[in-house]
Amino acid sequence: MAHDHHTDALLSFLADSPTSFHATANLTAMLQEAGFVELVESDPWTDLKPGSYFIRRNQSSLLALVLTGEDPVRTGFRMVGCHTDSPGLKLKPGALHTGHGFVQLGVEVYGGPLLATWFDRDLSLAGRVVWQDSDGCLHTSLVNFERPVAMIPSLAIHLDREANKNKTINRQNDLVPVLMLEKESPTPLREILAAQLARQYPGSKPATVLDFDLFLVDCQPPAKIGLEEEFIVSARLDNLLSCHSAVRALVDTVPECNTMVILHDHEEVGSMTLAGAQGSFLSSILERILPGPGQRQAALKRSFFISSDNAHGVHPNFADKHDPHHLPRINRGPVLKSNAAQRYATDAVSAAFFRALCGMTDVPVQEFVMRSDMACGSTIGPLTSAALGVATVDVGVAQLAMHSIRELAGERDVWYLYQVMCSFLTLSTRNNLWRSLAA
């Protein structure tokens, strides 16, 4: 895939993926178009023949699998992991309420967003809706209003003269979007959602909406920016950029080795869910492929896991927030992330392998270490490495404004990450780099 085409495809994917549910659906379509066959966890499949497969869980996590016919015990697995969710604002179950002539939406904070960036933005609604038809059957459908329907207005500076001085945001009182003006007989939210379902799915059975997982989403589309279009800006670059690169690399290459791409939901809230990295999704699929514990452990000892999640690029206005000797820059290549407390799973061996892989691919590589006097975040890397006993490296594209409603990354870094993913998935099992790693 050509450089410009890959970037344009990423921007289209971001625009069409306002939630983890939509991202999973769009990546699934990408896999199906490439000939991958769906497996359902509730079916008793085992002893898979060589081929390309995918499995979904909770409509928000996805595992893509290529079995080449080689014995995994002898050659291991190439594994790439990312997460499909992003910080944001999720609707409460009883979201609709009125006050002072307005209809508003009650929301909870999901993950750790930069809350100030959510004010005064054109916001839409997207997510999944569970509904019942006239025969009593339950169905789940994705919804996306695809237009501005809400806003969280700031308080005018005339009413808060200290607004520009260390303002504190109260999550319960301040983050309450305005949806419409109050009516004499307001329409219940579930009826609003039923009407949206009818618009999106004309000809479907009349729906009685029973419940929903809905999020506020920014309406501004992704874009290339900069005088020479060096940057991309979008919501949810963390971590849909990595998800797209991993799946795109998988469908654009012909892996020689048994390969997995695992995309987990709920990383931003700790991963302790049925769809998260601390759940059973990846381990249960591995158990089906290799039922014998001894075989499975032998295969994992010959495997390698790349945990791909965006990294903190050096901010030109706040360079003092970084370790002065580890300053990742935009468009200078993927970033190796290390932490002495193992908040990242990178060690000398896994870092060396990734450096060598980048060298083979003619891709530059950088390093990130958090300042010693600041707390470090984490990824799915340590969770996966600890649970499976698999060698793991934490890497990611350098970005600015992480967890903002609109994030910034380097356009060339998108291409670099994709190239490294392709090289990793196609590295021959007879290559000395892989053989020395798996020895």
UniProtKB/TrEMBL annotation:
One Gene Ontology molecular-function label: zinc ion binding
SUPFAM superfamilies listed in its UniProt record: Aminopeptidase/glucanase lid domain (SSF101821), Zn-dependent exopeptidases (SSF53187)
Coiled coil: none
UniProt KW Transmembrane keyword: no
Keywords, ordered alphabetically: Aminopeptidase, Hydrolase, Metal-binding, Metalloprotease, Protease, Zinc
BP-aspect Gene Ontology terms: proteolysis
Keyword Zinc: yes
EC number(s) from the headed UniProt entry: 3.4.11.-
InterPro entries: Peptidase_M18, Peptidase_M18_dom2
Database matches in Pfam families: Peptidase_M18
Cofactor(s) required for function per UniProt: Zn(2+)
Record-level GO cellular component terms: cytoplasm
NCBIfam families: PRK02813.1
Protein family: Belongs to the peptidase M18 family.
Official protein name in the record: M18 family aminopeptidase
